[in-house]
Specification:
Helix 2 packs parallel to helix 3, helix 3 crosses helix 5 and helix 8 packs across helix 9. The chain is built from eleven helices and eleven strands. It has an eight-stranded parallel β-barrel with strand order 1-2-3-4-7-8-9-11, surrounded by six helices. Strands 5-6 form a two-stranded antiparallel ribbon. Helix 2 links the parallel strand 2 and strand 3. The chain has a domain of about 150 residues.
Length: about 300
């Protein structure tokens, strides 16, 4: 089967809002420059400071009646899915159904799994079962569940989310197991640190898995988190992106920055984005890999100088 993709392309912004003022200015900027969505990441413990994603989005949702909101990605295996179902269902109501719940397994930082009492080796199975628990509880019916990790009888969780069946669940990941999980169970896919060719191949793997599972999909969400930096030259933008990403991920990111980022002049960034759209991405989520004080200016430059060049 071919996965049915959205007909148009949307643009979001992956960011972090570490104060009330940051929430206000970030949300206002996203609205002003015409972006479609705001996204935040998730870790319990990370190489740089990071805020709780659901609390950030709850504040942002109170400030915009237009923006869509999403997690990219929420590490569901670190938590019990029942209270997560309550929190995310509540957030879906507070933002009037403008929510996509992106989930993933993590694992790059084993200490956060140890801190949560979750074996790293169980994270894939916990994510799969956790997704089932979320959807059951979001139905608004009295449900029971008996799985490997979670078990309960006759639980009725109300009120239901605004979106029927709950917010769409988009899966992240690059391994074959992650891609097959997305094809079998998810409403969409959200990637990062992949090339357009890798994305195209990932969609083929997910389509095969969906076909094998006998799924009938009306529309499959496709998103990509794209690190970008606009500058006078590729070399300048590459240097800045390398410095920022190496700090963020506590590793030498120079090679991956060159391979996976959109870098250089506005026309270079636009050309890279067009390659991802041709590969099947319908929601480009930009992440400004720049010093903190330059990130808002980079987003404005994207809106003013890059978007007019996109097909």
């Amino acid at each position: 089967m071919n996965l049915p993709l959205a007909p148009d392309t949307k643009f979001g912004w992956m960011t972090s809002m570490d104060s009330l003022d940051a929430v206000r200015t970030t949300t206002a900027l996203a609205d002003r420059v015409g972006l479609d969505s705001l996204w935040v990441g998730d870790h319990i413990a990370f190489a740089v400071p990071i805020m709780d994603p659901l609390l950030q989005l709850a504040q942002a949702a109170a400030l915009s009646d237009r923006l869509h909101f999403g997690t990219s990605v929420y590490l569901l295996p670190l938590r019990h899915p029942t209270p997560v179902a309550k929190q995310v269902g509540t957030l879906d109501r507070l933002c009037d159904g403008r929510l996509t719940f992106g989930v993933g397994i993590g694992g790059e930082f084993p200490n956060e799994f140890a801190a949560c009492g979750v074996p790293v080796r169980e994270r894939g199975a916990r994510l799969s079962e956790g997704m089932d628990v979320l959807r059951a509880l979001w139905s608004g019916d009295k449900v029971s569940h008996h799985g490997k990790f979670f078990s309960f009888e006759d639980v009725l969780m109300r009120p239901k989310p605004v979106q029927v069946g709950g917010p769409p669940i988009w899966c992240g990941g690059r391994s074959e197991a992650a891609l097959k999980r997305a094809g079998r169970k998810a409403d969409g896919y959200i990637s990062y640190v992949v090339t357009p060719d890798m994305y195209r191949q990932a969609l083929a793997t997910m389509a095969s898995a969906a076909d094998e599972a006998g799924r009938e999909i009306k529309q499959f969400g496709t998103a990509h988190l794209l690190f970008f930096r606009i500058d006078d030259s590729f070399e300048k933008s590459w240097d800045v992106a390398t410095e920022h990403l190496s700090e963020r991920y506590a590793s030498d990111f120079r090679g991956p920055a060159k391979k996976y980022c959109a870098l250089g002049k506005p026309e270079d960034v636009a050309a890279r984005i067009n390659e991802f759209v041709e590969a099947g991405v319908r929601h480009i989520i930009i992440d400004s890999v720049s010093p903190l004080q330059e990130r808002h200016a980079q987003v404005e430059r994207f809106a003013q100088e890059v978007r007019p060049l996109l097909r």
